[in-house]
Design brief:
This protein is mostly helical. It has four helices and two strands; from the N terminus they run αββααα. The protein has a domain of about 50 residues. It starts with a helix and ends with a helix. Strands 1-2 form a two-stranded antiparallel sheet.
């Protein structure tokens, strides 16, 4: 029995079928003995690895195709012409609005002037003003004009367009002048 009592007085504590290590104080933390003090460790940044890109063989640059350059130039010219056409369209729209307002003002002025004109040529008032001096023209006083030929108008003071090389040079000069005038 003495052997049994020795076993029961072992250094291990137990609680039911759970055995605890010797010196276990039931979940409490031991206080360090003496002057032993825990100091916090300084934080150290983890080292960052430098990104290294793998070496890749790059294909050598090729030559530019002349058709590609010509194509890009053609697209640029067409885009510039499109912008210029939009500018012209805006200018023409503005001029159209201005001309419409002028037309309406001139139409109202025309109606007032026509009314005044018709008032001045009232036959009764003319007969009264002239009296017996007004007579109908005789057959000798009628003059007939032949208008069977085509109409022709000559405007003096303007240059006539030349022919040949001189005319072409003058026309190219006018085109250049018109373009520079438009771009101002």
């Amino acid at each position: 029995m003495a052997a049994l009592t020795e076993r029961r007085t072992s250094v291990y504590g137990s609680y039911g079928n759970v055995a605890y290590a010797p010196g276990y104080a039931g979940g409490t933390v031991r206080i360090p003995a003496g002057e032993e003090v825990y100091r916090p460790r300084p934080r150290v940044k983890p080292r960052e690895r430098a990104l290294v890109r793998p070496k890749v063989d790059v294909r050598p640059a090729g030559q530019v195709a002349p058709f590609a350059v010509a194509g890009f130039l053609a697209v640029a010219v067409v885009a510039a012409l499109l912008v210029f056409s939009y500018v012209q369209l805006a200018v023409l729209g503005d001029q159209t609005a201005e001309l419409k307002s002028q037309l309406s003002a001139l139409q109202t002025e025309n109606t007032t002037l026509t009314a005044e004109f018709e008032k001045t040529f009232d036959m009764a008032s003319l007969q009264e003003a002239v009296g017996s001096y007004m007579t109908k023209p005789t057959a000798e006083q009628y003059i007939y004009i032949d208008l069977s030929e085509a109409d022709e108008v000559v405007v003096y003071g303007q240059e006539e367009g030349g022919t040949g090389v001189a005319g072409m040079v003058r026309a190219v000069g006018e085109v250049v002048d018109n373009v520079t005038e438009y771009l101002r």
